[in-house]
Each structure stands twice: as C-alpha cells, then as structure tokens.
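Long-time lurker, first post. I've been practising inverse folding by hand and with some scripts of my own, and I keep getting stuck on stretches where the structure tokens seem ambiguous. Below is the full token string for one chain I'm working on. Before anyone asks, I'm not after the true native sequence, just a reasonable design that respects the backbone. If someone could post their per-position residues I'd love to compare against what I wrote down in my notebook.
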C-alpha cells in the first residue's frame, strides 16, 4: 500500500479496500452533511448502539433456539429463565462495548474494529458466565459460547450495514481538511475520497502562511480527478472553517506548522499525520513515545500463521459447509443443464502455491463455445479489448449463460464447488484468489514470486471489497496487504465479511 497509516496520538490504519464497507461503492465527491460535528458523531454512535441491540437480541434468540434443539431447554425450564436475563445481557453487552470504545472510534479501518469488537466479545463472554453461573455449568459450557459467537458475527454484520446506510446518507465520515495543496496533498485527498470507510471525508485544502510546507500547488488537468473540485478552505480563528471541519490530515510531518496552536485555535478537533510504510506490515503497528518524538514500531518479521492450524481450521469449516451446500449445488447443476446442454461443472487450470498448477472446480456459467465468442468480441470491439486488458473480465460478457449464469456470478455461487479444492488441500478458505497463467503473467516477477508463496483461497480481501471492479493495480495492492499482514484474525474477519459481500453482489462479473 502506498499509504497505510494515519497517526495522531494513536496510529489508525487506513482501510486497504478502495470501496465502501463490504464492497460498497466509494463516493467521488462527498455529500454535504446535514449535522454538525458533535451531532454527526452522536448519530454514528447511536447507529452502532442500535446495531448492537439488534445483533445482541438476535444472537440470544438464535442461541436459545440451538440450545433448545440440543436438549438444554428441558432442564427445569432453563430457556424461560434465560429469557428473563435478556435485558441484563444486552445491558452487559452495550456497556462493555461502550467502555472499550466500540461506538466512538470512527477512523479505524474495518479490521481494527473487528479486533476491538472481538476483544469486547471475549470480555462479554467471561462476564456472561459470571451472570449466568447460577443457572448451572451447562449454560456456561454451551449457551454462553453460542451467544458470544453469534454476537461477534451479527455485530459485525449489523455494524457494516448501518455504516453503509450512514455513508449513503452523507452522515458517515468526519469533514476533513488536507494540509497543503501540492502533489502529496492531492494524492492523499484522492486516496481518502476513494476510501470512504476510513471515516475521513475530504472537503478542501488548507493553504495559508505556516500551513502545508513549501510544496508547490499542482493543478490537475484530469476532469475525472475527484480532488479537482475541492476548494481551499478559509480558516477563521476561534470559529473554525466554514466547512465545519473536524479533522486536519497532513501528508507528512514536514507539512505541519511550527506552532500547533495555529490549528487548534481554529476549533480543529484533531490532527492526523500520514506515514507511508509502503509494503511493510501495518496491521500491528504500535506507537512509541520518546522525549520529543514519536516512533512507529514495525514488526521485525512478516506475519506467518501456523500452516497446521490453518489447515485444521479449513477442514473444520469446509466439511460442514460442503455437506450443507451439496443439495443446493446439485439443484444449480440441473438448472445449468436446462439452459445449455453440456457439463454442469467446469474445470480450469489455476496457479497454486509454489507455482504448481491444479484443476479448479466451478459451476459452469458460460456457453460451451465461450472461448470462440470471446475471441470474436475482442477482435471486433476495441473498447472491450481494452477492458479485458485491464481487468481480464468484461462487464457485458457475451459468453455468460442467460439468467442462471449472471445470477451465479453476481452471487459468486459458482465458486461453491471449490470447497472440494479446499478439502483436497489445493486451496485454503482464505487467501489470494488463484489466477490462470495468463492473469499471473500480467504482473511483475517480484509480485508473482510473493503470491505463489501462500496457498490461494476460496475468498480473500479482494473478494470482500472491490471484487471484479478492481484493476490489476488494485488486485496487486490488496493481495500484498493480505500477504504481508495475514493472520488467523484477518482470515476470520474475511470469512465473516464474505457473506454480506456475496449478498450485496456489487462488483461481481
């Protein structure tokens, strides 16, 4: 990533996804806010609080249903007594989340928030065991873990749904001024405008004496450049800028004024300084304070999850998923054969770990003569030929089967047979998606060597964000971010995020 960290008293990693939450589209130009800064933050916190109430209530009900099915309900009316504890349980959940800052932090990325929510869930589970302990050991062993697991998953889903709603309404994102108006400042503005989930919404540049360093202003000639329309903000001492600015972001420390009170006198709530870490792992960066300076502590070695633990996790999750989806896969196979006679499954050679090839299994979504159709289109349509060169996909692909083919691709259900590849060990549940040889050849040799060093996955960071809308540069950046920062925590987050991404279906082709 070209820019991976924003720092001010704490380091906040900007989201690596170029879209909204779970694949939502970014906004080139931010909408005008209807609320003041304090009101906006309260609305965001209230939305997250509401999500916890909805997710927590649903989690308790679902866990109660599961407990009833496995026979716990018959133990002296246990389910009825637990139902009476629902208000106490919800109060415990939201109280812990409030104390740990789950509701108020709006510039951490989704992965950081997942970690924060996971820690809160562990504290909640321990506290719930104490509250429910008088109901007997069975509750602590069975019911509490069920509630905690459901709280974590549903809490993430509801939070991202509410965040997407707030982003569409223009309420999400603190109005942000970019210090300076030179090339670095404009690049920073473009990146933030393409990452609305970061919680920072650029509204203009700050270019006054003592602000922005000495970098000369650069005027872009690209009409599609989202930073072109950003104005230079007029700061007014004691009253703040007319744009209702909450945050100022500096492209680097050299852009900061020598006297920080010049900014704070304007009513600025906080100042963030960007540190460009390149491809260094940034998920676990820590801030260290020394006399007169601040240091970012980077990991001395790349993250490398235990291969054996990852394989066990794949098996434990993939086996029940394969059994559950087997009848559905059979039904889809029948529908494919009705639309276009021929094999319902398609095998394609893909590049796996260590550069070895394997046969990837998919439900067929294209006509039997798909390659002839593609070559004809590429030979006769220059615009589609250019689109294919950038994405190796076509938005309007003449090869795709009508109705069933588009449905399978939009929902990614054509990928379900790859659970077999996961069980075989060709793939993992989470990792960079396996590419065909022609797709891999489009990247530089250094990236290819890095990519084949990890096992490809059924889902990955790219699939829960830009999906097919990401060009080669986006694919490269997101795969590097995953490989450099991979961990079991990141894998768990991607697995949880996959279902909402599939349901949303945005960016799929």
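-- Answer (accepted) --
I ran through it position by position. Result:
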């Amino acid at each position: 990533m070209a820019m991976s960290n924003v720092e001010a008293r704490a380091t906040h990693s900007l989201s690596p996804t170029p879209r909204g939450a779970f694949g939502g589209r970014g906004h080139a130009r931010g909408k005008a806010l209807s609320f003041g800064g304090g009101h906006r933050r309260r609305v965001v916190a209230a939305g997250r609080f509401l999500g916890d109430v909805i997710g927590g209530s649903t989690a308790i009900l679902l866990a109660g249903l599961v407990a009833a099915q496995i026979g716990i309900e018959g133990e002296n009316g246990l389910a009825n007594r637990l139902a009476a504890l629902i208000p106490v349980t919800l109060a415990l959940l939201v109280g812990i989340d409030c104390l740990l800052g789950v509701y108020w932090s709006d510039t951490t990325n989704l992965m950081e928030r997942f970690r924060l929510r996971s820690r809160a869930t562990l504290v909640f589970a321990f506290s719930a065991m104490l509250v429910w302990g008088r109901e007997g050991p069975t509750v602590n062993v069975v019911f509490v873990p069920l509630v905690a697991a459901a709280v974590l998953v549903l809490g993430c889903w509801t939070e991202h749904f509410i965040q997407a709603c707030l982003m569409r309404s223009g309420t999400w994102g603190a109005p942000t001024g970019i210090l300076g108006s030179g090339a670095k400042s404009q690049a920073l503005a473009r990146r933030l405008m393409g990452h609305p989930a970061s919680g920072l919404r650029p509204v203009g540049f700050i270019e006054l004496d003592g602000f922005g360093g000495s970098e000369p202003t650069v005027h872009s000639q690209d009409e599609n450049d989202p930073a072109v329309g950003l104005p230079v903000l007029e700061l007014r001492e004691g009253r703040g800028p007319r744009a209702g600015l909450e945050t100022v972001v500096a492209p680097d420390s050299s852009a900061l004024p020598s006297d920080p009170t010049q900014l704070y006198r304007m009513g600025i709530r906080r100042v963030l300084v960007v540190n460009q870490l390149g491809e260094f792992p940034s998920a676990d960066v820590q801030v260290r304070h020394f006399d007169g300076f601040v240091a970012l502590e980077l990991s001395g070695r790349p993250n490398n999850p235990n291969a054996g633990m990852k394989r066990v996790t794949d098996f434990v999750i993939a086996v029940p998923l394969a059994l559950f989806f087997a009848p559905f896969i059979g039904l889809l196979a029948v529908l494919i054969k009705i639309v276009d006679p021929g094999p319902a499954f398609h095998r394609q050679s893909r590049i796996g770990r260590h550069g070895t090839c394997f046969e990837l299994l998919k439900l067929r979504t294209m006509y039997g003569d798909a390659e002839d159709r593609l070559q004809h289109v590429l030979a006769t349509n220059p615009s589609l030929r250019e689109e294919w060169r950038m994405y190796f996909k076509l938005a309007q692909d003449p090869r795709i089967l009508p109705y069933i083919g588009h449905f399978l691709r939009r929902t990614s259900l054509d990928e379900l047979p790859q659970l077999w590849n996961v069980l075989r060990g060709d793939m993992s549940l989470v990792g960079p998606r396996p590419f065909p040889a022609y797709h891999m050849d489009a990247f530089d040799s250094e990236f290819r060597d890095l990519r084949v060093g990890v096992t490809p996955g059924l889902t990955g960071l790219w699939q829960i964000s830009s999906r097919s809308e990401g060009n080669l540069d986006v694919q490269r950046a997101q795969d590097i971010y995953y490989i450099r920062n991979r961990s079991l925590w990141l894998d768990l987050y991607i697995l949880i995020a996959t279902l909402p991404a599939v349901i949303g279906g945005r960016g799929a082709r």
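A couple of notes from the structure itself: The first strand starts at residue 5 and ends at 8. Residues 5-26+174-297 form one domain. Happy to go over any region you disagree with.
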